[in-house]
Specification:
With 472 residues, the protein is α/β, with parallel strands linked by helices. It is built from 15 helices and 13 strands. The protein is globular, with a radius of gyration of 23 Å. 42% of the residues are buried.
Length: 472
Amino acid sequence: MTMETRLQECLDRREREGTLRSLMPLPTSSSSSHFTPPKPSASITSFPIIDFSSNDYLGFARCREQTRRVECAYNKFMTSNNISLLGATGSRLLSGDSNLARSLEAKLAHIHNRQAALLFNSGYDANLSVLSSLPYRDDGQDAIIMDELVHNSLVMGVRMSRLQKDRVFSFRHNDVDDLRRILDNVIKSSAVIPTVLIVIESVYSMDGDIAPMKEILDLAESNGAVVIVDEAHGLGVFGHTNVDDMKLESVVAGTYRKQNIGAEITQQSLQGGTGALAALNLEHHPALLCSVHTFGKAAGCHGAVVAGSNTLISYLANYARPFVYSTALPPHSLVSIQKSYESMMSGEGERRRKLVFRLVRLFRREMERGLSSFGKDCQFELLPSPSPIQAVIVPGNENCISICKDLREVHRFDVYPIRSPTVPKGKERIRIILHAHNEEEEVQQLVTALLTSFRRSIIFSHTTRSYGISKL
């Protein structure tokens, strides 16, 4: 059997299982997450599509004013420093280092209240670097315990580590009692006192819920363990200025008000948006080994940073292979990151966060009200999330795909199905992201379209069972 045949067999198997991935037709809207409109196609109309899928929470990735700020700062830097290089030309350990990169790392370390910071080319690279390179005991007594829903980059980093597979454990999602049980078992079963690494996300990308970080960090400290927190979906969205937005009960109970948000922004509300750890004053927690902050979401650009101790950062610069062997970020990316932090922490960033969470309250209120009309046996479920990530369970890959296709092609909403095995079977979902660039009317229309599609799906399901229609 040739390699080409094996490749095709793998693709055919996924197609039979309904899990085959492919690039979707590009939308036409200039406000979408894509850069250029598609060529005319029978599968896509000329009407603009509305973004409810990108991770551009604050809308900075599509903001012309933000683009102008970056270009002005970049041109000024290149001119004043007489630099003509387009790329970094090499890895940081060779020709790719710069004063710009080092000064940015110093600023990010200060912002995230850590001793030092190290830039990476992406969040995936950063997670892979940390998890794959950490040193463990030669006798195999150390262990990793991770939340069952952590991102693939964290899982792959663990798989690439030198730790034995039987010393890698997962605990039930956000369940501190289950974590405690596993941690106790690991310590009791070890011949010596092990080093245990606990891996979590601050905000989970598929469910949108928030980790009980204080309880996990305290548990780790009392047992001599350390914690890594992936802040990919916390940066820019949460900070010390909007702690209440992290609580589901506050989002649910919060009164939705249509008002002029700009009038609420004061000088005291600046410096927010630096992450969920900052919101809870946990950046100095003794059990926190490091935090990973990704720039491809709310920051609206690219790259990532690991913030930790001087010792950890020095270690990663020596042993993290993706860092050692990758060409560094170019000057334009470094300037983009710097300007993104300035914007996220400014009054404009605060205004955008308030817009986002006003839409979160609106969406949850209308969605819960609509789903309640379906009765107790409703198969669709709005997951409990206080964040801009709102997930609606739509069981079955085929059903989930069909409803998303209807939402895209008929209603022009840019949403995507999250299918198994990315999520557990029966927990397939439509992942909806609310942004500062969304309008209230668009959110209302999305809810109406979702509920209409759900009712149509239920009617079709009942009809199929009643008439004994089988799938071809």
